[in-house]
Structure prediction request, 94 residues.
Amino acid sequence: MTKENEFKPKRQKTGGRKKGTANKTTTVLKDAIVNAFEKVGGEKYLVEVAKTDPKTFCSLLARVLPMDVNGVVKNVNLTAAEAEMINKTLEKEC
Prediction:
């Protein structure tokens, strides 16, 4: 797009939500989810889900944990068979 075709607002924006402010519906929904979570047992409920349905629990973890984890693992002595077993377990449960 060239500068002559570029959109130029005629006036400054006024009113509306401030940048970064959550939508009212989103806020209400998040509050409802937190309230339901507390009613079913909170942390104890999550522990039970982890035990009875690890796939669902891992799916939840994937949504709340950081995407990139940087770290160094030292002094781990695994055989190829042990590493493969760990990978298969993680693939099956997560």
The two ends are 46 Å apart (CA to CA). The chain has one domain: 22-93.
